[in-house]
Amino acid sequence: MKPFRFSLELLRVLRKQKERVAQQRYVGALAARNEAELELQNAATELATLWNVLGQELGQGLSASRLADLRAWCKVLETRWNERKVAVETARRTAEQAFQEMTLAARDREALDRFYDKSRRAHDREALREEQKITDELAVQLNTSPGPLQYSGEKN
After folding, report:
1. CA distance 126 to 142
2. Which of 1, 55, 61, 90 is the most exposed place for a label (fewest CB within 10 A)?
3. Is 2 exposed, middle or buried (0-12, 13-18, 19+ CB in 10 A)?
4. Tally of domains in the chain
5. Which ranges in the chain belong to alpha helices (H)?
6. How many degrees, rounded to 5, is the angle at CA 61 between CA 55 and CA 65?
7. What is the pLDDT of residues 37-77, one digit of tens each?
8. How far is residue 100's CA from residue 111's CA, in Å, rounded to a whole number?
9. Which range marks the domain in which residue 100 is found?
């Protein structure tokens, strides 16, 4: 019997590659999301630190110009925090989309793998059936033809 050949093997390879690319994209998206979250946390820490400084200096009394400078710097840090917050949300959406693509690619590959397995099992069953048929034919031939140990002489 001829060896097993899966007619959709090229498609199977392409789906595996597509899944691998989707996995790599997801890993990159997760890394970007984590980096964005870290930057957001750093911006929040900077802002909280500056608010504490502003509060302490207000308690000790400060000049109007110093207050204006600290307040302007707070506005800059608040803007930076807001930008980082938007970046985190964008990175989260990108990661979610990459996850969906990876899941879809895995589902497509798994469906083709199941079809491959089913085809392989059918081929193996057919090979066993063919082998059994040949074995049976040999057994019949051996039983019907006289062998060296069988008596085939005539009676005198």
Report:
1. 24
2. 61
3. exposed
4. 1
5. 9-60, 64-144
6. 90
7. 999 999 999 999 999 998 888 888 888 898 899 899 999 99
8. 17
9. 9-114
Tokens of 113: 């793998």
Tell me the angle at which helices 9-60 and 64-144 cross, rounded to the nearest 10 degrees: 160
- DSSP label at 7? T
In eight-state DSSP terms, residue 147 is -
**Is 30 within a domain?**
yes
Q: Residue 60's domain is classified under what CATH number?
A: 1.10.287.1700
pTM over 0.90, yes/no: no
Q: Which of 94, 117, 101 is nearest to 19 (CA)?
A: 101
Confidence category of residue 14, pLDDT binned at 50, 70, 90: very high
- Highest average pLDDT, of 56-70, 86-100, 123-137, comes from 86-100
Residue 151 lies in a domain: no
Contact between 24 and 124 under an 8 Å Cβ cutoff? The reply is no
**10 Å Cβ neighbour count for 150?**
7
Contact 18, 105 (CB under 8 A): yes
